[in-house]
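Hey,

The postdoc asked me to send both predictions to you directly instead of through the lab channel. I've kept everything plain text so nothing gets mangled by the mail client. Protein one:
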Amino acid sequence: MAYPMQLGFQDATSPIMEELLHFHDHTLMIVFLISSLVLYIISLMLTTKLTHTSTMDAQEVETIWTILPAIILIMIALPSLRILYMMDEINNPSLTVKTMGHQWYWSYEYTDYEDLTFDSYMIPTSELKPGELRLLEVDNRVVLPMEMTIRMLISSEDVLHSWAVPSLGLKTDAIPGRLNQTTLMSTRPGLYYG
């Protein structure tokens, strides 16, 4: 759950979100090092009068500043691709939940069980109890098991929606006429808003 004035991500609840957080830190460190190097070179160029004219035209320098960015991009792309394929894997789900977006509510159906469907409406601000969160509380919450692979089938009946749970690292578009699929697995119990 996000807190007021929070600067970082929410606590990771799924293995995918943990990988996304590690990738974020990895990429941020690369960006920080590149920014520091560029700032150092710019400040060096502005403060010193010494220039070596043959260095500016050297073939070696051009080779280095062509190959080095390519290596850096590969260092960013390979972990990113690994996470992308991890997010797309379906590992024999234990439960399938069909989620349909409507203009003002969501409909959920546990497809592995007969006649287990319900609608989830947002609670109006005037009916909130103390401690409940505005625009996040609903009358019927989705209950999912912990440490089990769950497949979510997501679509919409009328307009575009987005089904997202940030602490699980999930965000899938609900598009009318299209069935999107995502998997999730929670590693700890809790109440997760999205």
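Protein two:
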Amino acid sequence: MVKYGLDYTRCRWILPLLLGIGVIFGIIALSGRGWLESQTLPYVQQASLWQSCRRPEQGGDWSCESLMGYAWGRAAAATYLVGFILLVICFALAIIAFAIDTLRFNFIRGIGGLLFVAAVFSIMGLVIYPVKFSTEIEMTGINMFSWAYGFGWTTAIMEICLGFFFCCLPNYEDQILGNVKPTYFYSSP
């Protein structure tokens, strides 16, 4: 006997787990100092979502400037932070939704919609930052958007993908809950 569909009892925590990983990646992006870094020696520039630091020569002291003094810096931080807060809310709602024995599939579709809104806010912050940073802040040497900025994009991509999963999951409600008659490959003659 071969049964198709998802085994709800074993797979019910995969989506909340992936949301939790997205939250961890978002925390790394928010707190990481590697949004922009110098690519070659001497390493003279390093920036996070919150501040930009530079030093005159190798081994010198870093001097940091807050990006919250710029309107674009506040906009980038605020939009990415709103997207992250919406992601945390979706994570909490997913834990609640999957912990209940009788799953409410319309509630899950709402989580998917909220994830799309979170992705829009995150992407807005991730686009504002490099465009305005490279035009407003004087950069010396060869610089690259680095690991923490990559974690930000990973979070945004996870929000989009998980939004699709949460929106499409109610389409398979009968298969998940086991209300579909199993299909057998073997039939008696």
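Summary for protein two, as requested: The helical segments are 8-11, 14-31, 71-99, 105-136, 147-168, 173-177.

Thanks,
C.
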